[in-house]
Amino acid sequence: MQDPLGGVFAAVMTPLREDLTVDTDHLAAHCRTLLNEGCHGVSLFGTTGEGPAFTAEERMTALEAVIGDGVAAQSILPGTGCVALPDTIRLTRHAIGLGCTNILLMPPFFFKEPTDEGVFAHYKSVIEGVNNANLRIYIYNFPAVTGVWIRPHVVERLIAKFPGTIAGVKDSSGDWDYVDALLAIPGLAVFSGWEALLPRLLAAGGAGNISGLANVIAPTLRHVYDTRPADPDHPVMQGITGLVAAVVENPVIPAIRALAANLRNDPSWRRIRPPLCALDSTTEIALLAAFEETMDGVRI
Questions:
Q1: DSSP sequence for the chain
Q2: What's the pLDDT tens digit per position in 50-76?
Q3: What's 154's domain CATH number?
Q4: What is the pLDDT averaged over residues 27-53?
Q5: CA 130, chain centre distance (Å)
Q6: Which pLDDT score, from 0 to 100, does residue 1 have?
Q7: Based on the structure, what is the number of domains in the chain?
Q8: 146: domain range?
């Protein structure tokens, strides 16, 4: 039985060439940088990585390139969710074949508000279609993007049906009552996508954070994970809370890319696939000013 994941995982941005194809060399280098900066692992092709914007072939080629460049498969949590069930099964089988047995799996995101039975049937179909005892699924609950709530009782039902396969949940709803209900499920590794919730989550027995902002503040988030400041008014936590608030005032993925372009001195991070667009210069300057104000003196 594999140990459940824990720690700070970066929800990795996907770098693009000028023709908007995936820059696999840059992606591998960025993953190595994030691991060297303290991340316990990296998650590819989730929301921040714009997974649904890329074809199955692009995602498979990129994962092969990252592993081929020396990033350990065990440190990668690839997102394999697609609208089409066969594509999800195909991507998941491919990842397992490369040694990535831990999978981040969002529900289908086109048909909104499916029934709980439909959500259960989807995950059941993926597990049975992949048909691999090594598969460990981390369910991805992000209803603001997918239009789907994955209810705790559905998670419990999946665990009962497939013991050992459902390893955890990443919640990006920010709803603490939902998180608290997940924490009551024995043996479930619960991650949050909200950086400011990390100490509270850890204190309650949670597993960690899968973070878009880790692309730019990985050492700070690792410091929070290691020190677990309980006081929300702790300067580091105030800084992170303020930064999250500044980022979510904008389109989030372009905002994180804009921060990376400035903080990593790499303008290529501004490249993004339509329909998303880079921030305009005025908005980017304001966001960078907010970063400097909120993280002044507390960024590790």
A1: -PPPP-EEEEE----B-TTS-B-HHHHHHHHHHHHHTT-SEEE-SSTTTTGGGS-HHHHHHHHHHHHHTT--GGGB--B---SSHHHHHHHHHHHHHTT--EEEEPPP-SS-S--HHHHHHHHHHHHHHH--TT-EEEEEE-HHHHS----HHHHHHHHHHSTTTEEEEEE-S--HHHHHHHHTSTT-EEEES-GGGHHHHHHTT--EEEESTHHHHHHHHHHHHHH----TTSHHHHHHHHHHHHHHTS-HHHHHHHHHHHHTT-GGGG---TTS-PPPHHHHHHHHHHHHHHHTTT--
A2: 999 999 999 999 999 999 999 999 999
A3: 3.20.20.70
A4: 97
A5: 22
A6: 59
A7: 1
A8: 7-227
Model confidence over 112-163: pLDDT tens digits?
888 999 999 999 999 999 999 999 999 999 999 898 999 999 999 999 999 9
Read off the pLDDT of residues 229-242 as tens digits, 9 standing for 90 and up. 988 889 999 999 99
CA of 250: how far to CAs of 99, 102, 247, 286, in Å? 36, 31, 6, 11
The Cα 227–Cα 207 span in angstroms is 14
Domain membership flag for residue 256: no
At residue 3, does pLDDT exceed 90? no
Q: 71 is written with which tokens?
A: 């990033």
Rounded distance between C-alpha atoms, residue 227 and residue 221, angstroms? 10
The number of CA neighbours under 13 Å toward the Cβ of 22 is: 27
- The answer to whether residue 80 is domain-embedded is yes
